[in-house]
Design a protein that fits this description.
Alpha-Beta Plaits; single chain; alpha+beta; four-stranded antiparallel sheet; 31% strand; 4 helices
Length: 108
């Protein structure tokens, strides 16, 4: 059964574009993981400062395997850190991980 993980990230006002840039820099990093089904970064279209990172997984075990993998730790370090430099200032000021399963919907 597909599980959905939503990382709700609150950013400082005006920092959302930097969050999007950082995600774009590691686009497709998770695509080849077993059980991974899809990803979206959702930008608020109103005055909210909470962005949503939505991922879909075949099952909870697939998600946990990704979170506990060296690739997860590597992917969540900045390009500067991966090159041996200093970590940039965090963009997110708070985050929550939400977990869902599909309870209904439509195909179109």
């Amino acid at each position: 059964m597909t599980v959905i993980k939503i990382n709700a990230i609150t950013v400082e006002l005006g920092s959302g574009d930097e969050l999007a840039r950082r995600f774009a820099a590691r686009a497709n990093a998770v695509d080849d993981r077993d059980g991974f089904e899809g990803f979206e970064l959702l930008k608020p279209s109103d005055d909210r400062t909470q962005w949503l990172v939505v991922t879909r997984w075949r099952d909870e075990e697939s998600f946990l395997a990704w979170v506990n993998s060296p690739a997860f730790a590597h992917g969540h370090r900045s390009a500067a850190e991966r090159a041996g430099g200093e970590a940039p200032r965090p963009v997110g000021v708070h985050s929550e991980l939400w977990s869902y399963t599909i309870a209904g919907g439509s195909a179109g």
